[in-house]
Amino acid sequence: MAMKNIWVLVLAVLLSLPAGAAPSFESAQAAAGQAFQSFPRAAAVFQKGLQVPKVPGQPAAERPAAGAAKAVVPVYGSVHLSGTAFVPRVPGYARIELRGNATLTDATGQIRSQFTWITVAGDIYVSGGFVSAWARPNTQVHFYKNGKYAGSAWIRGDVPVNGWVSGNWLNLSGFGQLSGQLIANP
Questions:
Q1: For every one of its 186 residues, what pLDDT tens digit does the chain have, with 9 covering 90 and above?
Q2: b/e map of 149-159 (b: 16 or more CB within 10 Å)?
Q3: How far apart are CA 68 and CA 111, in angstroms?
Q4: How far apart are CA 80 and CA 136, in angstroms?
Q5: CA-CA distance, 89 to 70, in Å (whole number)?
């Protein structure tokens, strides 16, 4: 790699000189070597007990202590999803966004999510007046214990939704369970 850099530098020196003042190969190689010698040498120094820098945007109280064990905590809750979509023609597809709010918790009730919006969007096939489908939420939710950040979890669920087409509008709603595994800070 160093040889390639030298040749690039030699070529750059040769191209930058006027046509009548081309140096000899040896003088160009010597100039290139001196140019590379002027670069400072980089060396990594590792010190035992060196402090890890703070993570921007995360208060010190929320960072786990080095080497602290984490716990896997099952979390669960329920959600009521509803939404409306425009149906250009029947039969055909409609784009719908289902929304609802949920509060998820662990078995003790001490670790909780705050008021969390759950949103599921997708295309749904409408073939007649009644429509039935499954909404599958998959979202990241933050949890708190005694007002302090406890961690986050991916929450998933299967929510049956159904509804009717009225004119060119489809109204869907449904109720279902959500669950996930929280990797909790100690």
A1: 555 555 555 555 555 555 555 555 555 455 545 444 444 443 334 444 444 445 455 455 455 555 567 889 999 999 999 999 999 999 999 999 999 999 999 999 999 998 899 999 999 999 999 999 999 999 999 999 999 999 999 999 999 999 999 999 999 999 999 999 998 876
A2: ebbebebebeb
A3: 19
A4: 12
A5: 52
Nearby residues of 172 by Cβ (< 8 Å), 6 or more positions away: 81, 82, 83, 84, 85, 96, 98, 124, 131, 133, 161, 162, 163
| Alpha carbon distance 60, 98 (integer Å) | 37
Task: Record the pTM.
Answer: 0.61
Contact 176, 158 (CB under 8 A): yes
In angstroms, what CA-CA distances link 133 with 9, 24, 123, 136, 160? 66, 79, 11, 10, 6
